[in-house]
Amino acid sequence: MTHSDSITLLLDLKASDLTFPLDNFVKEGFSKLTGPNKALIFTATYQPKQTICPACGVIASTRPVRAYNVSEILLTPSGHRPRVLSLTKAKYDCTDCGTHFTPNPYFIETGATISSVVKAAIFLDLRVKMSMKDVARRYFVSPAFCWKILDQIPLKQSFRQLPEVLCFDEFKATQNSDNGLAFVYSDGITHELIDILESRKQKDLMAYFFKFPREERLKVKTIVMDMNASYPTLLPILFPNAQLVIDGFHVVQQLSRAFNQLRIKEMNRLKKLPGDNGKVYRKLKKYWRNLLKYTGKIDYQKRKQFPLFHGEWRTEGEVIDYLLSQSKHLEAAYELLQNALDAFRNKQPKVFFDAIETLPNTLPEEFKKSCRYLLRHKTAISCGLLSPYSNGPLEGKNNLCKVIKRIAFGFSRFTHLRKRILLQQLLTKRN
Fold first, then answer.
1. For residue 62, which phi and psi values (nearest 5 degrees)?
2. Is the pTM of this model over 0.85?
3. Which pLDDT value is given to residue 99?
């Protein structure tokens, strides 16, 4: 390996016709490409053995040299220090057509001062959870240059095929989206994110999914989603053979939210009563998580000291029994919640809906209204109880989308957010 080949390898470049001097081939100094940052400036000459005339395409091994052109090229940094290549390029005259031209190495585009190696490194970092300013600062370029690279990446939906199981959901995207919410869907079997749409309106979803062949849409057998009221009306049109499945997480969330709202209402009512109810208010406020816990996971054996109970040694079950004894409405709602969760865990749709349909008259009307809302989706919830598919992995993808958005301090353009998310998913898929 020659001296020039060794330096070329150290600069993360492939074999080329670069020639480095034996002495003083690198120095420390300032460059217009790196601004106030001191850079390692490498000196080299590019005079290829073979040249191709860009006008006539003639290939020749020797050309008469007219002059030399010196330019600076930004390379990948070494640690926290930028590296710049001061490249002297030979100018040529074509002996066939007389055109004057200056050939460039493979890592330099015509008129560019930033090497393609830096652009490739920026592309790889765009697939990581990192803000655009941090990426730009790492390679000593401007954030606008990084956005330009992102805009050049084609990530278009092919509209060729659909999986048998689809998961639908939405998350808060950019302000110019439909009410700030974007539609996202994934493969229910492999959990791979398929695409993200800026709008979740019915007309936009129909225009999007109609781009898929009818044969592919007929292959979809299951749609997993939350209790969104707008999506079910689209299924007979877009996916005639698909069965709607409502994920169990949202069902449990609906019941837990209704119970929690009742707890807050009872907590505030007890606070206004005379006597020692201020302490009951604080206890109901502090131990709300214990009241939402499934009864099969409550500890009835181990005793410990709970704050607000005057240092008494109690089990978790005794604390919950005390809290429920302060309100008959809360006690009745708790019994209903646990019966429903027990039937839900045992995958008994009939028992579950029997508990919802036979609500005690003593319960507040608002609580009963929240529970009866589940009856509107009785068929889909029953299918969800017996189905092996879940929207949980897609909810995790939504959390990833929010993390990417938060790290970037928001996105002004939806296309940028979509590309960052899909690029990150491509990295996860390959790993």
1. -135, 145
2. no
3. 78
